[in-house]
Amino acid sequence: MLELGNTIVNFTRLVPHGLLVFFPSYSILEESLDKWRNSAVSESSLSVWDRIGQQKQIFVEPRGRADFKAVVDEYHRTITDNPKGAVFFAVCRGKVSEGIDFSNDKGRAVVITGLPFPPTKDPKIVLKKSILDETVVPPGEQV
Question: Which of 90, 20, 18, 86 is nearest to 55 (CA)?
């Protein structure tokens, strides 16, 4: 996880204006950000989170809808007003990834940190798997 954080630090140095970083789930997003906030090896060294913040203003997709519009509006304002730009940490299939315009400077690069596979214990997935297992024709048999 620290390697991913260090890679994102490098992206923030290289990508002008807006950088979007998507995670497979809120839990992975929160776990990564917590790890990066607490990654300083000594009191005199900076954490991954601090090094990202030195390069760009940081925004994180909120879980709730109440704060969402304000966060996105502030991100867009920062892209316009701050020459360093901003980084927006969000979730695949979350609110940020659905229909918001990140054209031109608002989204100069997109990083996808992992594929958002559905949970294997989800009842819909379990049911679909059992139906598919029942319909599989064994090798050598005719349909």
Answer: 86
